[in-house]
Design the sequence.
């Protein structure tokens, strides 16, 4: 059993192709059943873009009936015959952080995360993607905000400055995916701990 587990990890980390920078994975958080029609429209639009290789929908509403709405939604989403693969993943919590978690299924170096009620046209998505490719460590988005400090309360506040911004909202954001890099770092830390135990 240990041999097969090790062999599977070896295949995943060393033999699979390195993440690509010319393709993108779209991650969408879904929660409200009333938004399902627009969600289907968004998925159809993004999955038809040539450089989009996969669309992952994270459904975070635990009260949604699994045997009715979710299964029907999954079926309706996957009947679109586009080049991108479409997957619906039911989440155990409603946390919006689910699209930031490492996902072994993500095989691109860049991800696009967006809300289930935001539909950006393909030309704008292509423009944002090209801007990201010019600097791989940059956050790209269309919904910008600013932070400031409230001198009276001495606390950081969320605001809008027309002349500058420091925050990109996750309503639509493109950024470098570091899931595989994080997994490699974890493996290195585990190896170091094992060596220390053996030496001790």
Sequence:
């Amino acid at each position: 059993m240990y041999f097969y587990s090790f062999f599977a990890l070896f295949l995943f980390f060393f033999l699979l192709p390195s993440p690509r920078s010319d393709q993108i994975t779209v991650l969408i958080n879904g929660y409200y059943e009333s938004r399902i029609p627009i969600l289907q429209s968004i998925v159809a639009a993004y999955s038809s873009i040539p450089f989009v290789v996969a669309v992952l929908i994270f459904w975070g509403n635990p009260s949604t009936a699994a045997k009715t709405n979710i299964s029907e939604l999954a079926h309706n989403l996957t009947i679109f015959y586009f080049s991108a693969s479409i997957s619906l993943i039911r989440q155990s919590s409603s946390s919006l952080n689910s699209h930031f978690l490492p996902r072994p299924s993500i095989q691109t170096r860049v991800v696009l995360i967006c809300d289930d009620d935001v539909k950006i046209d393909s030309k704008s998505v292509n423009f944002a993607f090209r801007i990201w490719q010019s600097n791989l460590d940059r956050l790209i988005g269309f919904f910008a905000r600013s932070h400031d400090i409230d001198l009276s309360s001495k606390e950081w506040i969320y605001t809008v400055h027309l002349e500058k911004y420091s925050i990109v909202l996750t309503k639509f954001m493109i950024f470098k995916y570091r899931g595989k890099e994080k997994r490699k770092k974890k493996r290195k830390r585990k190896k170091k701990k094992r060596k220390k135990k053996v030496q001790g």
Notes: Residues 27 and 48 are 15 Å apart (CA to CA).
